[in-house]
Write a structure and sequence with these properties.
With about 150 residues, the protein is an alpha/beta fold. The protein is about 35% helix and about 20% strand. It has 6 helices and 6 strands; from the N terminus they run αβααβββαβαβα. The chain is globular and about 65 Å long.
Length: about 150
């Protein structure tokens, strides 16, 4: 989704926040990102070695899969590994200012905080997001379908 937004909205900086488990389930996106390299896209992958939403099952990054090496191997040139808060702060500031595609792998400790579920459906969330983009970009994304009257035959 972030790649599509970056291509469709080239004047905006698009930031994708992802997890190691999510990326490992869709490694095919890496060569696509390398081929497209939108200069307004920043991808930040938080690598805690777990599928937290799947019951804290270990991901393959916990046993040696190197997400930054996979990204580099797919052709993503501006790939960085981050192991400290200071490095994260510094590299994030640089990536946000740079007119270049960046891919940051941030190694973090497991341990999410309990979060209250939102009282909103995924469909409602999607439409709110689309309406926000429409309002801030002055572009129409969705339109109301036009119905034509048709005579029903028996």
């Amino acid at each position: 989704m972030a790649l599509g937004l970056a291509i469709a909205l080239p004047k905006r900086k698009i930031i994708a926040l992802d997890g190691d488990g999510s990326l490992l389930l869709n490694l095919g996106i890496l060569p696509v990102l390398a081929q497209q390299t939108p200069p307004n896209l920043l991808v930040v992958v938080f690598d805690n070695g777990l599928y937290e939403s799947g019951g804290n099952t270990a991901t393959l990054s916990a046993s040696g899969a190197d997400l930054a090496a996979l990204a580099s191997g797919a052709g993503i040139e501006n790939t960085k590994i981050i192991d400290s808060l200071d490095a994260f702060s510094r590299l994030l500031k640089t990536a946000l200012k740079a007119p270049a595609f960046s891919f940051l792998v941030v190694r973090v400790k497991p341990g999410g905080l309990p979060v209250t579920p939102k009282g909103m459906s995924g469909v409602e969330n999607k439409f709110r997001f689309i309406r926000h983009i429409e309002a801030t970009e002055g572009k129409r994304i969705l339109s109301i379908p036009i119905r034509t009257s048709q005579k029903l035959s028996s």
